[in-house]
Design brief:
Elements: H1 2-22, H2 31-34, E1 51-53, H3 58-71, E2 75-78, E3 97-100, E4 107-111, E5 116-120, H4 125-134, E6 137-138, H5 151-156, H6 164-167, E7 174-180, E8 186-189, H7 203-206, E9 215-222, E10 224-225, E11 229-237, H8 240-253, E12 258-265, H9 266-275, E13 289-297, H10 302-316, E14 319-324, H11 328-339, H12 341-347, E15 355-357, H13 363-377, E16 382-388, E17 393-399, H14 406-411, H15 414-427, H16 443-449, H17 452-465
Parallel strand pairs: 1-3, 2-3
Antiparallel strand pairs: 4-5, 5-9, 6-10, 7-8, 7-9, 11-13, 11-14, 12-13, 15-17, 16-17
Helix pairs in contact: 1-3, 8-10, 9-12, 13-15
Bound molecules: flavin-adenine dinucleotide (FAD).
Length: 479
Amino acid sequence: MKMGVDLVGKTNLIVEQLRQIVGDQGLVADDASRQPYLRDELGAFHGRALAIVRPADTEQVSEVVKACAAAGVAMVPHGGNTGYCGGATPDESGRQVLISLERMRRIHEVDAIGYTLTADAGCVLANLQAAAEEKGLLFPLSLGSEGSCQIGGNLSTNAGGLAVLHYGNARDLVLGLEVVLPDGEVWDGMKALRKDNSGYDLKQWFIGAEGTLGIITRVVLKLFPRPAFQATALVAVASIAAACELLAAARKLSGDAVTSFEYIPGFALALVGQNIDGARVPFDDDYAHHVLIELSSHQENIQQTLEDILENALESGHALDAAIAGSGEQRDALWRLRESVPEAQRHAGGSYKHDVSVPIPRIPQFMDEACEAVFEVAGDARICAYGHLGDGNLHFNLLPPAGMSLEQFKESPGPRISQRIHTLAHRFEGSVCAEHGVGQLKAGLLAQYASPVALKMMRDIKHALDPAGLMNPGKVLLP
Ligand SMILES: Cc1cc2nc3c(=O)[nH]c(=O)nc-3n(C[C@H](O)[C@H](O)[C@H](O)COP(=O)(O)OP(=O)(O)OC[C@H]3O[C@@H](n4cnc5c(N)ncnc54)[C@H](O)[C@@H]3O)c2cc1C
């Protein structure tokens, strides 16, 4: 009884301490307002929290972290909550403090001479894109969730998206960071330098760390000239191998102007056609394989370059048909086909997901063997493998056989298929966590597939920065 009273007393004390740091408007107190913070985007994870705080600046984040560290309370950084791996959701103990960055959304500077953008980590990605565009510049990170994900979350998950092939992942777009470390100390790494070889590149430790090493509070990002012209086409290709050939040729013939190269199988396109209002597939015939290709350039003749590339591909037999966008509306319509695949899957009852990458030349064989594995384990499951072929990253999703619910499929045979797909990706020297990170969903997978040496280095880094294990425990590394 005495211990229970002590615990309640301590809990009240820390919550009161946090209230004093962030003020009433920085504490989410009523139950209904707390709920959206406590479940993840896909509804797969639900948690509880001792407190949900919304600090207004770096100093408040630092004070909050110091108070939690002193009390031995674990913390969960929380961005736009669009992650797919439960990284921003607290556990069910009700003893963790959730720290939301949503009030930290100031854009400090867009520098059109140095091509940099300096902002708070809570800025929504679309607002950063717009701020760059206002100055005629480009921040190229672009994801389906850009209207709500935050740059701090993007960096913490090393987000990919639709232009990785040309501009790289989030990791490649950062010059400087400010981070509140697990003891509350602030590391100011806000340098806007293109060259800096003074020792270890510390910022990279926090990018892709999913909030397990500290809380990113401010960022300096790279900007780029905004390409004036884009040429976009949906191309029916003879096979996945033909798609890979087309990618290589397009990069060569365009002087590496390919900014997106997305694979869409016939099955996914049909799902979109059936389930998404206004979606229209621009071909009369049904094809098994398609790619959405986009070139970007400041040269107006980029459209002609794309036409030449596709003509060659049609002659060589790699391409079977092509629809080239002749206007902005037509471009949007083609992109809508690609971006509607997740929604079309939801309309069809939802999908069982794998997010894998393998080296591009090995994708055709990987796909053959992965499809064979699905066929062996669950012959009538429907394969909807689509995505960022130009990055070697496919969302190898499965729809249950007709008549079976997704819940049933998740019980069986889903896990047996996952085992086969992940083992195969590993054997092809690929990754089982290609784009969406690890979070709590894939911590077991990382433990299974990362090498012992890699795991030991990760644990050593974690222990060096967070010896008490209070920063987002249970995420990325298993306890
Ligand atoms: C429709 C849709 C499309 C998507 N498309 C893509 C895609 O193409 N590519 C892709 O990579 N992802 C995609 N995602 C997944 C998701 O949007 C990304 O992972 C995104 O980067 C997460 O950002 P967030 O702000 O929502 O982070 P959250 O979900 O809030 O958090 C993600 C992780 O980062 C940590 N974190 C958040 N903020 C901070 C911070 N400031 N400091 C330290 N740690 C922090 C959290 O603790 C958690 O571990 C998509 C999601 C949706 C819903």
